[in-house]
């Protein structure tokens, strides 16, 4: 039998919180934090902006030479290690792995370089010699590896908006293979620094807009009109249960099951049948039935078709589950892309202890095609017990991921 893999530390930054405690408090209080952001060539758009102390773990030179995604990853890595009570000076650094999910990387840095070069008549002598290390796909994980001196494997996993979950899944697999003894895993996103990402969603008719930026991200609401792009990050420390118990670590929960599959159908429009299959596969691996899930955190991004397609998948699997409560975190923080899955899972983890299901907020008129059994709308729901949390994350080009966490 496979040894359980457990979460022992959480480090995060979100638009409405820079620690798990603050993030959770604001989710339960119904406090979202989306603001107007001036974007090159776009003007003012709603966006989720993190306000963590970038100088807490980096010097000015590191920040100047590195990337925003790297800064987010470093902040989250340090916070996760501290939360887990892990001292790197006491560990074999070659036995630690870093697995960070990303939606994209390099877009921000390339756009900035081209803009700067335009001021010098496109004379490439002014192109930064930092550009290549900034834009390679493994950059965020690599910045963590270099600064912390971790010599085990490091890489990023490009998996669109399913990447946060997939970073966790990769870590679980590597721990079970015996490749590492400790993993830093999750996802990060610097997407708000790229005008191209905003422009791309606008050209698709999928960029949210409205008078109040805080209410633009409104999954399942009849008046929703698109996503809010956000930055953020969440990294976990993952260990084998025996190692965690040996050092008497705090344990948030066990990764009980997971799954990844592909729609193989459309670049943007999700396939609810494949999504439902992904959920069922994760349940089967966890040896659970749909009725065993206490909280289901949905991926829904506040697009009309995307939300409706996902609701078809949820109803297919959970239509007869009176004790499964459903919520959505993007209604608070927007869509943090590669960090979304990891952040949204973190927001629900404290429910194991406080037995509160945070709401999906900003639902004024529920879309009839998004009606779900036990959808928690606008107000927190208290429940007798929370033992299992299922987190879904789906991405462009039809990549689907599910992670199930169980209370020990």
Q: Helix tally?
A: 14
Looking at how many chains there are and whether they match, the oligomeric state comes to single chain
Number of strands: 15
CATH class group of the largest domain: Alpha Beta
The secondary structure category is alpha/beta
The sequence of SSEs as H and E is EHEEHHEHHHEHEHEEHEHEHEHHHEEEE
Q: Kindly state the percentage of residues in helix.
A: 25-40%
Please indicate the percent range of residues in DSSP E strands (runs of 2 or more): 15-25%
Shape label = globular
Largest sheet: 10 strands, mixed
What is the rounded Rg? 20 Å
User: How confident overall, as mean pLDDT?
Assistant: 97
Strand neighbour order, sheet with most strands: 5-4-6-8-1-9-15-14-10-11
Low-confidence stretches: none
CATH architectural name of the largest domain = 3-Layer(aba) Sandwich
- The CA-CA distance between the termini, in Å, is 17 Å
CATH homologous superfamily placement of the largest domain: Thiolase/Chalcone synthase
Indicate the CATH topology of the largest domain. Peroxisomal Thiolase, Chain A, domain 1
What is the count of distinct domains? Answer: 2
């Amino acid at each position: 039998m496979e040894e359980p893999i457990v979460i022992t530390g959480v480090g995060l930054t979100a638009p409405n919180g820079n620690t798990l405690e603050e993030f959770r408090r604001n989710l339960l209080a119904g406090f979202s934090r989306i603001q107007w952001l001036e974007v090159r060539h776009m003007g003012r758009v709603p966006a989720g902006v993190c306000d963590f102390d970038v100088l807490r773990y980096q010097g000015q030179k590191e920040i100047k030479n590195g990337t925003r995604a790297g800064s987010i990853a470093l902040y989250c890595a340090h916070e996760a290690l501290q939360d887990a009570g892990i001292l790197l000076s006491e560990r074999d650094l070659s036995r630690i792995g870093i697995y960070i999910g990303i939606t994209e990387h390099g877009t921000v840095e390339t756009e900035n370089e081209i803009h700067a070069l335009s001021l010098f008549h496109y004379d490439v002598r002014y192109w930064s010699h930092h550009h290549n290390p900034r834009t390679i796909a493994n950059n965020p994980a690599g910045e963590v590896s270099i600064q912390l001196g971790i010599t085990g494997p490091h890489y990023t996993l490009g998996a669109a908006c399913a990447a946060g979950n997939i970073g966790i899944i990769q870590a679980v697999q590597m721990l079970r293979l015996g490749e590492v003894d400790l993993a830093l895993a999750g996802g990060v996103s610097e997407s708000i620094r790229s005008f191209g990402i905003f422009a791309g969603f606008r050209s698709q008719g999928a960029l949210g807009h409205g008078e109040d930026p805080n209410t633009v991200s409104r999954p399942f609401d009849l008046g929703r009109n698109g996503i809010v792009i956000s930055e953020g990050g969440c990294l976990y420390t993952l260990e084998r249960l025996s190692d965690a118990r040996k050092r008497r670590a705090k344990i948030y929960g066990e990764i009980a099951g997971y799954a990844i599959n592909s729609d193989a159908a459309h670049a943007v429009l999700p396939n609810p049948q494949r999504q439902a299959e992904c959920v069922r596969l994760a349940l089967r691996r966890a040896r659970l039935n749909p009725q065993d899930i206490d909280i289901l955190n949905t991926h829904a991004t506040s697009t009309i078709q995307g939300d409706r397609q996902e609701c078809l998948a949820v109803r297919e699997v959970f239509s007869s589950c009176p004790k499964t409560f459903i919520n959505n975190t993007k209604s608070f923080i927007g869509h943090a892309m590669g960090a979304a899955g990891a952040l949204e899972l973190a927001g629900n983890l404290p429910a194991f202890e406080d037995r509160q299901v945070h709401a999906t907020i900003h639902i004024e008129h529920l879309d009839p095609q998004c009606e779900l059994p036990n959808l928690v709308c606008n107000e927190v729901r208290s429940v007798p017990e929370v033992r299992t949390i299922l987190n879904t994350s789906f991405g462009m080009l039809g990549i689907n991921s599910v992670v199930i966490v169980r209370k020990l």
